Structures are given as C-alpha cells and as structure tokens.
Amino acid sequence: MNKLVLSGRIKKIEPLRYTPPGLPLLSLVIEHAAENIEAGMKRKVECEMNAVAIGEITNAPLTEGNHIQATGFLAKRSVNSTQLVLHIQHIEQL
C-alpha cells in the first residue's frame, strides 16, 4: 500500500496550471517539523515535501503559511526522475 499522511505548513504554492487533458494542477511545498521517539530517544524531524493536487481538490482555499494535513500517495516526479512527490487526495486545514 502506498499511503502518506503529512501535516505541516504550506511553504510555497505555485500558480494554478492545467494538465494536457485540462485538469487543474496545483504544486506546493509542505514544510514539516516535529519530535518523534526513535529507539527510546527524542529525535527532531524536519523535512520539506513537494506535493501536487489535481482536479477538484485544487478548489480548497489554500494559502502560504496555512497549517494542513495532507493525505495521498507518493510517485516519481517524472518517468526519468528519482525524486518523490506527494499526490494529495485529501486535505484539511489544521
């Protein structure tokens, strides 16, 4: 199963664009920071995740700085890329 739930702050939103079939596409960067327990010790975790929203989900009222929880799946950015992108299927404001 390929499912990811990530909470964080929207660091960057690109202007809305359209796929070749005409679907709206929104690219964004989610910035995450938390503390997790690993092997019995606290560990500070920080990351940035590139994400895309395609279709109706692009109508969600999103702005830079919003705190969100995004649920979706990971896929390669393109056929020849090794970089992963979160494809958002559900998003909620926190």
Explain how this protein is built:
0% of the residues lie in helices and 65% in strands. It is mainly β and 94 residues long. The chain is globular. The chain has a 5-stranded mixed barrel with strand order 1-3-4-6-5.
Quick structural summary:
This protein is 0% helix and 65% strand. The chain has 94 residues and is mainly β. Strand 3 and strand 4 form a beta hairpin.
Number of strands: 6
CATH architecture: Beta Barrel
Shape estimate: globular
Average pLDDT level:
95
Q: Radius of gyration from the CA trace?
A: 14 Å
> Counting H and I runs of at least 4 residues, what is the number of helices?
0
Instruction: Tell me roughly what share of residues is in helical segments.
Output: under 10%
Show unreliable segments: none
CATH C-level name: Mainly Beta
Return the CATH topology: OB fold (Dihydrolipoamide Acetyltransferase, E2P)
Estimated share of beta-strand residues: over 45%
What is the N-to-C succession of helices and strands?
Answer: EEEEEE
